[in-house]
Design goal:
The chain is about 10% helix and about 35% strand. By secondary structure, the protein is mainly beta. A hairpin with a 4-residue loop joins strand 15 and strand 16. The protein binds zinc ion.
């Protein structure tokens, strides 16, 4: 009997693994470009894609900045050198980026559209206009020319249009290339204003002391409007995320996702599985945020109890704002529990309210909050 149960459990884990792999396959993509700098050089986490432009806050920062000093820049794509230029000041002329210093533009193709890759603030281009380049080829030495406060590489993607004034043509490079073996996360937060903060825990990358930021900012709502990806339709993104499981929160916790990143994969946080993905990686009690939240008729809370639990009499309890217990679940079982909390558990005269839920007899799990909207 015991061996049968063991086998059964193994079978179940296999099923869950198959499910997770399938889900992650469906909802993730691979990177389209190679990275234009060496893997030990990070993107600047304190000047993000879509963040208000430092010199003119009514514009957005239309690319990302790599913290490269005077070092080799590599072509992120195959293509042809469209332009090699020098623009010392902020004059914008057609596609010429104001203040870009020495810069070069490589024309490539993605999904039957021209993709223009801009490399700015270079010390010295190593290629000439009209030349063919291949992915990974050295194309420049980075530098600090033009409107730049220190050596770095501003890397910008324009899809479909080369012109500067078409900010909608911009795409977030964090979702196009990554440090080898790392992944990326994206999502879309409904009704998020521009530059709403999106937090991620734990910090997905080791950081030098001068970039302590471990958050993203939303973009593409209102002005300045910049582009979302044609496939992903995101309004926030985290690039160079090391493989692992992360919690993403925004809007004071109303937006909350648990997402697992695999090497080289770009994962949609909004379609990631929740508890299922975590349970295979951690042998501990996992206690999900209810979904949907806020809720109107019913909401689901998932609790995973590992085989060796601290307590074999665990239940889920729901409290109102005055601390009165208004619901207690059946005894939870080992494995995955899905508790459906229905509006029928509430006094029908109640209006919209904040509720709290926790596991009984546990002080190692936080109390979580959910919102009932009448
Ligand atoms: Zn920049």
């Amino acid at each position: 009997m015991k061996s049968f149960l063991m086998r059964d459990k193994k079978f179940l884990i296999c099923c869950i693994l198959t499910f997770v792999i399938k889900v992650s396959y469906i909802h993730s993509q691979t990177f389209r470009l190679s990275r234009p700098v060496k893997d030990n050089i990070q993107a600047n986490g304190s000047y993000l894609y879509g963040e208000p432009n430092i010199s003119n806050p009514s514009y957005a920062h239309l690319g990302i900045d790599y913290l490269i000093r005077y070092d080799t820049v590599f072509s992120a794509s195959d293509g042809v050198v469209y332009f090699v230029g020098y623009n010392p000041n902020d004059t914008i002329n057609g596609y010429e980026p104001g203040g870009a210093g020495n810069y070069l533009v490589i024309q490539s193709i993605w999904n039957n559209k021209y993709l223009f890759l801009f490399y700015m603030h270079l010390q010295k281009p190593l290629i000439t206009q009209g030349q063919q380049v291949i992915k990974g080829q050295p194309i420049a030495i980075s530098g600090n020319t033009g409107n730049s406060t220190g050596p770095h590489l501003h890397f910008e993607l324009r899809l479909g249009s080369v012109n500067y004034n078409s900010s909608r043509s911009r795409r977030n490079p964090e979702l196009w290339c990554s440090i080898d073996g790392m992944g990326a996360i994206y999502g879309k937060i409904p009704n998020a204003q521009n530059n709403s903060r999106v937090d991620i825990y734990p910090d997905p990358k080791p950081r030098p002391p001068y970039t302590t930021f471990s958050y993203a900012l939303t973009y593409n709502f209102n002005d300045p409007y910049i582009g979302s990806d044609d496939v992903y339709q995101e309004n926030y993104a985290f690039g160079d995320v090391k493989p692992g499981t992360y919690t993403i929160t925004a809007q004071g916790g109303l937006y909350r996702r648990i997402v697992t990143v695999y090497p080289g994969q770009i994962v949609n946080a909004d379609q990631a599985t929740l508890v299922e993905e975590k349970l295979i990686s951690e042998n501990q009690i996992i206690f999900s945020q209810n979904y949907p939240n806020p809720f109107n008729s019913e909401t689901v809370i998932k609790v995973y109890i590992p085989e060796k639990s601290y307590n074999d009499n665990l239940k889920l309890e729901v409290y109102d704002i005055l601390g009165k217990k208004i619901y207690e679940s059946e005894k939870l079982v080992t494995g995955l529990n899905e508790i459906i909390f229905s509006v029928n558990n509430l006094d029908c005269t109640q209006s919209s309210m904040v509720l709290f839920y926790r596991l009984n007899g546990t002080n190692f799990e936080p109390t979580k909050k959910m919102i009932y909207l009448k």
